[in-house]
Amino acid sequence: MHALVTGGGGFLGSGITKALIQKGNNVTVIGRRKYPHLPPSAKVLQGDIRDYEFVKCCSKNVDVVFHTAALPGIWGPKHEFFSVNVHGTENIIKACRDNLIPKLVFTSSPSVVFGDSSLEGVNESVPYPDTYLCEYPSTKALAEKMVLQANDPTLCTTAIRPHLIWGPGDPHLVPRILQKANSNRLIMVGEGRNQVDMIYIDNAVSAHLKAALAPNTNVAGKAYFVSDDDPVVLWKWINSLLHRLGLSNVKRKISYSNAMRLGAFLEEMYRFLRLKSEPPMTRFLASQLATSHYFDISRAKKDFDYRPLVSQEEGINRLIHSL
Q1: For residues 245 and 262, what is the distance between their CA atoms, to the nearest angstrom?
Q2: Among 152, 194, 225, 322, which is most buried by a count of CB atoms within 10 Å?
Q3: How much is the pLDDT for 323?
């Protein structure tokens, strides 16, 4: 099998690339930089998914596309998120059609169905919200809808919604927690009892590969929540991680309502002053830190036999050992 991985130098993309190569597949990676951490057999092509001719050229003679490339984050200009997450995805779909690629696996996010309230054990029937608190989930939702609507007899499309990917090499979640903890800027939002789903990197990779190899009749035009299948109490998990690393527990606290008000104020101030840096609090961040969001992954288990390969306990041990 010849696979194309967009964003193949990123945390998830690298994992998918390495796993595919270990299984004897040919892999082409699209990315904006060089990636020396990838296996030498990976063909790395530097470019931008917003450049259609580049995408079309890179995706010739490909059997499956894993589209993991995206502009993440909770702050920034709308046009930047739209150009990468929406226009870039349009280019991927068009290239699949023009090059007669039969399968597209899209990395989505559970945030595409998150408004500002808890999601507790919901499945994929939960609707998209009417409004979003930031541009990332808004544009990812648009991209997911396009991908799923593109499904037809010639192109099987599937969307995978991993939540809070973590593990050794994670460049976002754990480093951000540790950075704020070390500078005494980590603040508990809400009562600290909210439960969230997470997914260890190996489990996220496995979900993507299993979806790609599943019969089209099982996965065509569908979205899937995937996780470690073991929701954690977010702030208990964070404090446990800090304790194992010899750091102090989170002692500062702010109510959810006050955090939302603070986030709204800072968003307005940063827009008015045209500050490019991310505000220390936003409404989206407050809601993510204070509400519950865990999901029913029965559909993934049924349609492509998804099962977590690595448990939370084993994952934590590996993460601690890697730091």
Answers
A1: 30
A2: 225
A3: 86
Tell me how far CA of residue 317 lies from CA of 167, 227, 232, 321, in angstroms.
10, 18, 16, 6
Burial class of residue 21, CB neighbours in 10 A (0-12, 13-18, 19+): middle
Digit-coded pLDDT (tens) for 72-81:
999 999 999 9
**Contact (Cβ atoms closer than 8 angstroms) between residue 107 and residue 147:** no
Active site residues: 136
Using the predicted structure, report yes or no on whether residue 116 has a pLDDT greater than 90: no
Q: Give the torsion sign (CA, 241, 242, 243, 246).
A: positive
Whether residue 61 is predicted with pLDDT greater than 90 in this model: the reply is yes
pLDDT of 51 over the 90 cut = yes
3 state SS of 179: helix
> CA-CA distance, 283 to 131, in Å (whole number)?
13
Gap between the Cα atoms of 7 and 179, Å rounded: 25
Closest CA to 320 of 214, 168, 105, 141: 168
Residue listed under structure tokens 């470019």: 47
